[in-house]
Specification:
Low-confidence stretches: none
Strand content: 35-45%
Pfam families: AHSA1
Protein name: SRPBCC domain-containing protein
CATH superfamily: START domain
Mean pLDDT: 93
Family: Belongs to the AHA1 family.
Helix content: 10-25%
Distance between the termini: 52 Å
Radius of gyration: 15 Å
Order of helices and strands: EHHEEEEEEH
InterPro entries: ASHA1/2-like_C, START-like_dom_sf
Largest sheet: 7 strands, antiparallel
Shape: globular
Number of strands: 7
CATH class: Alpha Beta
Structural class: alpha+beta
Strand order of the largest sheet: 1-7-6-5-4-3-2
Number of helices: 3
C-alpha cells in the first residue's frame, strides 16, 4: 500500500475559477468537506506563511500555506486537531487544458498506508463536490442583468 495520495482530474472551468475555489473561503465552504451534512466553517489567509482552519462539524484541520503561486500552485501543511501526528503536505497544481483545468492533488507524508487510505476516502467525495460546484453555470455580469 502507498502512503501518498495523488488525484488527477480535469475540471470543467477556467484555471481562475478552480484556483478561486481552493482559495476563497466563501467557495471552500461549498465543497471542502466529504460529508455535506456537517456544518463547515473555513478561515483562510491565503499567502505564503498564512494559516487556515477548517471546521467540519467536530473535526478541525489546520495548517500553513507554504507556497502560493496564483493561479497555478498551492501548497499547505495539514494537521488534525487532537492528534500527535506530524503535519502532512498537500500540493495542488493547476494547468489549463482544452477541456478546462487539469488539477493534480498530492497529499503526502502519511505515517501509514491506512492513514493515507482514510484520507483518500475524504478527498474523493470532496473532489467530486468541487467538480459539481464548478459545473454549475456562473452568472456573467456582462450579459446577465438579473
Amino acid at each position: 500500500m502507498d502512503t501518498e495520495i495523488r488525484i488527477e482530474r480535469v475540471l470543467p472551468a477556467t484555471i481562475g475559477r478552480v484556483y478561486d475555489a481552493w482559495t476563497r473561503a466563501d467557495l471552500l465552504v461549498q465543497w471542502y468537506c466529504p460529508n455535506p451534512k456537517l456544518d463547515l466553517k473555513v478561515q483562510a489567509d491565503v499567502r505564503t506563511g498564512g494559516s487556515y482552519v477548517v471546521e467540519m462539524g467536530p473535526h478541525v484541520v489546520r495548517g500553513t500555506y507554504l507556497e502560493v503561486e496564483p493561479p497555478h500552485r498551492l501548497v499547505f501543511s495539514w494537521k488534525w486537531d487532537g492528534t500527535d501526528d506530524a503535519p502532512t503536505r498537500v500540493e495542488v497544481e493547476l494547468s489549463e487544458v482544452p477541456d478546462g483545468t487539469r488539477m493534480l492533488l498530492s497529499h503526502t507524508g502519511f505515517p501509514t498506508a491506512e492513514d493515507a487510505a482514510n484520507h483518500r476516502q475524504g478527498w474523493d467525495p470532496e473532489v467530486q463536490r468541487l467538480a459539481e460546484l464548478l459545473t454549475v453555470r456562473q452568472p456573467d455580469p456582462a450579459t446577465d442583468r438579473g
